[in-house]
Write a structure and sequence with these properties.
By secondary structure, this protein is mainly alpha-helical. 56% of the residues lie in helices and 0% in strands. It contains six helices and no strands. The chain is flat.
Length: 122
């Protein structure tokens, strides 16, 4: 799963072969490049280093480096709320409505509040 897209086949899928064919197509080089150039985030790590994609989105190599440090997301009932809050705070920083320091502090405070209310933190 990346960028809101999840390429998977449910256990109850009735047409697994078509699902596999679609996933192979959607994550192959040409469609992935078109997706990137329509401002999407690639679903293949190798797409982060393809020269035409890097020319379009120069931050892709840094994103690829960060992915090597990534770990699976722990799912809790509040996951969407946390991700929504994170995205909003990052947007406020990127649009200069908040300083980076304030944005990080607000992310931390918001996460702590949500996780406490959900019973995940004391």
């Amino acid at each position: 799963m990346m960028g809101g897209q999840a390429y998977m086949i449910p256990a109850r899928a009735k047409n697994r072969d078509a699902a596999i064919a679609y996933i192979k197509f959607a994550t192959s080089r040409d469609p992935m490049s078109a997706f990137v150039h329509a401002t999407g985030q690639p679903a293949r790590v190798s797409a982060l280093t393809e020269s035409s994609n890097v020319a379009f989105a120069p931050y892709f190599p840094a994103l690829g480096g960060a992915l090597r440090l990534a770990h699976p997301q722990v799912r809790v009932a509040e996951s969407f709320q946390l991700l929504d809050s994170l995205g909003n705070q990052v947007a406020l920083v990127l649009t200069n409505q908040k300083t980076t320091k304030q944005g990080l502090a607000d992310i931390q405070g918001g996460f702590v509040d949500v996780l406490k209310k959900g019973g995940h933190l004391k």
